[in-house]
Structures
1.
Amino acid sequence: MPIFEYKCSKCDEQFDVMTSIAERDEQQACPSCEKGVGKRILSLFASPAGRTSGGLPGGGCSSGGGFT
Ligand SMILES: [Zn+2]
């Protein structure tokens, strides 16, 4: 099941809920204050532009090796 992110309308707590896609738009009870309800927000890793930092880890100045 996918995990969706919610944000509480009362305490602004953000939390993840694993639920089915069919129920992703349901309001989820806040686990923090237990009074507010969380409304779904877009998770970062779901945005297409959020993971463009991929590449070579530290592949900048790796030539030579003459570090003192
Ligand atoms: Zn809350």
Note: The chain has a mean pLDDT of 79.
2.
Amino acid sequence: MLKKLSFLVAITALVWLNPVSAQNTPYTIIANPGENASSEIRLNWHTNLDDGDPYILFTERVDKNWKKAIRTRADQELCTVFDSIYSKKPNGENFYEDVRFMRNTIALKGLKEGTEYKYRLSSEKNAPGHSYSYKDSEVHYFRTAPKSGKWDMGIISDMHVYAPLPNRQKVAMEMVQQLEKHNKKPFDMMLHVGDMSAWGGSYSFWPTLYADTYFQ
Ligand SMILES: [Fe+2]
């Protein structure tokens, strides 16, 4: 199984104070290996409640003008598990997170092995006067695993990122940089074993981590 793991992670930037409502782009975007990482990738991202239907446009990286791009709809569900959870702001102030968002997921299958792909996410509405899209959104990338041959992976855990102690995230990212330096190139995959967030139920800690350039 491990031989089939693939490449990860592409994320959008966002604003700290109210990550869910303060922006109009998909956020906490992540790519994970599918069951067969040579031919599948699993993507997950969040959008605001009224953003509309989630779509993805993807093609091989070498397809310059996106001529062979495939557009497909992702699954979407309302996520309320983080709503009204006790949390901390960066200044140490207590608050209850007001967080309801849409969770979008899709597994892309039938991909070519050892191939780099690019994708864009969009959100579309049919209601008159409310139509907008993310087609001009950032381009994200992932690579499927090779059928055989060597690949490398960085492993990290227990970052415990926590808003009032931003140094934890900073130090964790520096650790990833150290690992990469040692590896002399970016890893084919990063595996996060657990305890990434000090309080996993505090939603704001997550998009802050995902927005970190180095985490991306
Ligand atoms: Fe821990």
Note: DSSP finds two helices and twelve strands in the chain.
